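User: Last request for today: this protein with calcium ion, please.
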Amino acid sequence: MIKKSISFVLVSAFCFLGASTFVEASSPMGLQSINPVESAGSDARSQDFLQNSLSKVQHVINAHTYTDLFGNPRFNPNLLVRVNMNSLILPSEQSIRAYFISEDANYQNTFGMTTGHDFSLSAGDQATIFANASAPPLQTGDFVDLGVFDKGTKLNFFLGQDTASNPISNTPDEETVWWTNQLKNKDGAQHVFGIAIPNTNLLLMGWEDLSGSLFGLNGDYNDLFVVLEGVATPEPETYLILATFLGFVILIRGNKRQEAKVKS
Ligand SMILES: [Ca+2]
Ligand SMILES: [Ca+2]
Ligand SMILES: [Ca+2]
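Assistant: Here's the final one, the structure of the complex with calcium ion:
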């Protein structure tokens, strides 16, 4: 009887401890975490983020979110403010941290990263940042220290679609793993919009978790909002702007030529 109550107390104590520590999905796709997730406000740097930066981040999210015909919010920053997420190259040595902001996703996605030209995910790699990028278990302001990266390092981020809901059966087959480098996506679609938060060293990412064949041009890009701290602002998506501009020029020229033909 005494033994039973002792074990009961032990089990209760264990459950209590379990509830107070962070609950994470176990290694989705066989990947390991880069560093543990730490609670919002648990050090001076993250307190500063909550007090001085979070409102700016939320302002930027709201400023670039509109309601579509079905009443659903869509995050869709225009081309002038989007940064080129395929050129996250560090201009100097940086200590980088990722903050979870929010998610509006039915899937339980995995957020992670690689560096350089490495877009392969193999079991055992230390690649996950938020193994389950869902709230709960995450709360706004929870963060992961990604480490200190050398000048010139190229950062690649990915979102694994629903890989946290059944981590055991998932393998890194990469069919529905979406990268900051659009060319690495099996559906060929862009899955992330990035915006630099003005007057800060913060970069906001808004992710779309559905395959491009399903969302078409109407992704809501709010399936995960993450902020990177310590990443200097990359170039804007100028190549897209330039391409659009050239498209217009060709169109106008083409029309003028046709007009000239009709007149002649
Ligand atoms: Ca969710
Ligand atoms: Ca979506
Ligand atoms: Ca969504």
